[in-house]
């Protein structure tokens, strides 16, 4: 009876959250008690709010200044723990009234043993494998005693059953008397324990995966912050260079401009910091509550511990429901920051240094100088630039050169079939097909070769290949199977560039853009005297037309309907670095950026 009482007392001294003996016990307003460390973790799990919810009864307690240490201590419980810890443990094997002090505890027998009993115990062959703990190690906290679960109502009975509806362990007698009514689901205690441990392992695995997912999101935000920081550094360097070339009187203006850049970039940085902070708080929340739930060495036994466990598991399940991070928001914020640039004043009023503007276009130097011959959007949303000196250079929407292919082929035109195969028109006006892995296919086409003069290429939605000729003044149509032409379309002028558009073709000749059907009949026409014109199909299936004042290096881009009626102006008189030769191309990325290419440079308008 005394041993059963000790077990009851020992269970009463366990915290319902960590299942260990209370350390620095604190009382909530609902009268439930927990370790101070456990309450600190619970407060952190709920975003460090000043309201703390009890895991057992879910009543809320006000935490002054978010400091759990200011909650009242359970002095009576603390004193009882000290008394139990400091009292001697007597041998439970000796039968005499004057029981000697125990020196060890046998985990398998569940008994405290004095020196004499311990010597006898160690000599029995059947007891040699038993786990024996020294009392000194138990009192120091280095090891913990594995207690046997005894029924409080029937101390001699083990609690071998578990009622899922009452959420409590019970002995067989209690099951017969209290848990046989309809609605009581009674299972073996060991079955519940196995299921409980499996659910903890599953939760820990899910928490680890979710934590990894959000950590990748934080890493991505850091990458975006670094890119934005690089823009700030570049802008600051440009401003300083312009300042050094000017007079001392520009100091005030210089500081104003730097502050403006800093203000714009810091606004973006703050957006990214808020995203990062929110995500890190969620990671901390996941980590803390997952550790509280999963880092257990015991199964909760009484109703309070079970209630606390259920609440914590529910909190973790709610945390796991949060959707995975959306990378679109930090990417958009980063893009906004990267659009900031410094525009130096050139002209009479240079004392103003310049101004901070949103970048109209990214200006990228082509690796192969004075060589661009063609440009087309790739099936995966990038931009392919064909070079007359050899190769197709592929750029991402942010202007990064991703790869160069067909380095030994002098490119005159590039297109793509619906199965992503490349269609290449070389410098001799020969057509070749390549797989998306850049393997040349054994398909021949009977083109006009050099006899047709300068040629341009496009591919329509039905995989028909169109080749226009400047000198021959005609358009040849081929099947991707190769061989002879399917038909020829005569044309009244030499065509410099050709683009497929719905059931029509867009042709370009000097200052004129024409929309013709596939029999060669001109449906609509647009002429801009004094400006070279270049056309492309937009992602909204409208027509984009670039107007180039070659002599002064100014480009404007406008949007038109399928009848060449003006819709809106997109770019006005953007200054480009004037190339040696007049040859330009216009295209649009799938993501919306407009690409304008000269013989030497690629401009990407956002």
UniProtKB/TrEMBL annotation:
The lineage of its organism: Eukaryota, Metazoa, Echinodermata, Eleutherozoa, Echinozoa. One of its GO terms (molecular function) is ubiquitin protein ligase activity. The keyword Zinc-finger applies. It comes from Strongylocentrotus purpuratus. One of its GO terms (cellular component) is nucleoplasm. Residues 321-341 are annotated as: Disordered. Residues 86-135, 146-189 form the B box-type domain. Pfam families: zf-RING_UBOX. This is Uncharacterized protein. Residues 15-58 form the RING-type domain.
